[in-house]
Write a structure and sequence with these properties.
The chain is mostly helical. The chain has 4 helices and no strands. The chain starts with a helix and ends with a helix.
Length: 81
Amino acid sequence: MLLLSVSLVSAHEHDFNETKQLIDSGVSCDSLSNEQLEAIGEYYMEQMHPGEAHETMDNMMGGEGSESLKQMHTNMAKMMY
């Protein structure tokens, strides 16, 4: 169980590393896909509310994989990027 948790955390951090590189590239917001915007919004949320706090907020917004959470992360990226 512990190994699974560690691998999930590593995978999650890897996604944030890729997202951080995307942000640092400075590509125009108009050129980003909805999936990229969602990832950027999730990255910003993690910066403001790290770890368990982010997970709690995600659950309040509909939970992992929900359309409402995807939209919230996308909107956050559009406002902040």
